[in-house]
């Protein structure tokens, strides 16, 4: 099943925009670290706290991005199924496996396991 190129381009744009945002915030953090008084304990603790908070926010952003991309992937998959020709849609599982030399049930179970594991 092939996704439409516009869907793939949209996914790619979403990924690159989100990663660029995370990357730019990492660059800002490195610039802030130049203003730290490393011999002052309170300054170091404050810096560590800020970095920890930023890490937690980045992790949350990445999880949100992952979920959005998984939803998008499911949409592309369903749209691909809808565009199958009628003769392919009418095939039994065994006929499909023979015709395309695969095990469609195993493929679907693999996708479900991947989604369930969050991968």
What this model shows, in words?
- Helix content is 82%, strand content 0%.
- The protein contains five helices and no strands.
- It is mainly alpha-helical.
- It is elongated and about 70 Å long.
- The longest helix has 42 residues, at 41-82.
- The two termini are 20 Å apart.
Task: Please write out the topology.
Elements: H1 5-33, H2 41-82, H3 86-89, H4 93-100, H5 104-117
Low-confidence stretches: none
Query: What's the order of the H and E elements?
Result: HHHHH
**Beta-strand fraction estimate:** under 5%
Largest sheet: none
Spell out the key features of this protein:
119 residues, mainly alpha
Q: Summary?
A:
The protein contains 5 helices and no strands.
